[in-house]
Amino acid sequence: MQRSIANAGPLLPDRHRQGDFFLCDLFDAIPKDDMATMEHPIFSLSTRPDRRILRYAHNDVQIEVTPSVKGLATIHDKDILIYCISQLMAALNAGKTVSRRLHLRAHDLLIATNRETSGDAYRRLKEAFERLAGTRITTNLETGAHEVTSGFGLIESWEIVRHARGGRMVSVAVTLSEWLFRAVMSKSVLTLSRDYFRLRKPLERRIYEIARKHCGRQDSWRVSVDLLLKKSGSASPRRVFRKMLRDMIAAGHLPDYEMTEEPGDMIRFSLRDAVIEGSARNAPVLRPETFEDALRLMPGSDVYALEADWRAFWAASGHPRLRSADAAFLGFVRARADADR
After folding, report:
1. CA 231, 234, 240, 246 torsion: positive or negative?
2. What is the DSSP string of 55-77?
3. How many domains does the chain have?
4. Domain contains 104
5. pLDDT < 50 positions in the chain
6. Model pLDDT, residue 145
């Protein structure tokens, strides 16, 4: 399993800590993010409604991001897209047919992205969907070997499919933009640390994904403060931005990478932790009758999709040795069935 950072002071709590693998209630696939939005600033880093029009140009890439009346989509709203991309990649790795339209359980999304599951959390989730659908992007940024200048929303549409008695969303359907879907289908994605969802500050999340995109598996990567400021999309003055970077260096809790300041106003990112790549296709084989037992636990479900989710969790947990793979899988399905009731 990827290392969970011990000094959790500056980090959000691990709200849904993984317990016994046989009783796990974490149903997310391995977190994946698209490389285009990791490299270039698309999301607002503000914690208040941001109604600016953002313009960014670097080399041959040009981006203009226009908000709706609800404001720009934020870096925390991006959690929804990361969850969608992760689910699509898990399905592709399992040989499943996928489409731009996904049906999601709101509770699973909150759990997977380390969010609270209170009534207020569901309200904030609805607001995030509204900002993602309302934010419009015009860009020539290439995805899936296609470079066209086009305008689109981060998600094309969304709808609450089922409400609980109190009006809280239970399941939601999301249609991704063709632009983002192309990135997934071309597998232009990278794995993220699960501790990404524990980073409190928007800039920390943005800096992490820039480092993940540019440093990757290299031993280190150096970048000037000026270029990092430009790539981050931060609206802070340069001196304030540098101070925030120094605070991050002092805290030392960025997942996967260690930050250091070097002469010449440079920042170095050094690889600290191994990043999980690939799928869990080497997980133990399940007996045919186990799938029948799973169907009895969750009638009408796609047991092979459940198996793909379980394999992804098994890989992200560090490929633990199992006393009984069949019992582990059925424990996973039982926990999911309980959560859906």
Report:
1. negative
2. EEEETTEEEEEE-BTTBPPBTTT
3. 3
4. yes
5. 1-8, 18-28, 274-282
6. 57
Residue with tokens 């133990």: 284
pTM of the entire predicted model: 0.75
Structure tokens at 220: 């280190």
Encode pLDDT of 267-316 as tens digits: 999 987 544 444 434 456 788 888 889 888 988 766 766 777 777 677 66
**What b/e sequence results for 6-34 when a residue is b if at least 16 CB atoms lie within 10 Å of its CB, and e otherwise?**
eeeebbeeeebebeebbebbbbbbbbbbb
Are 207 and 257 contacting, i.e. CB atoms less than 8 angstroms apart?
no
Q: Are 193 and 273 in contact (CB under 8 A)?
A: yes
Asked if residue 3 belongs to a domain, the reply is no
| Residue 326: Cβ-neighbour burial (10 angstroms; 0-12, 13-18, 19+) | middle
Residue 237 and residue 287: Cα distance in Å, rounded?
A: 60
- Judging by DSSP bridges, how do beta strands 32-34 and 189-191 pair with one another? antiparallel
DSSP state of 109: H
- Domain check: are 121 and 43 in the same one? yes
Residues 208 and 88 in one domain: no
Question: Residue 301: what are its φ and ψ, rounded to 5°?
Answer: -85, 165
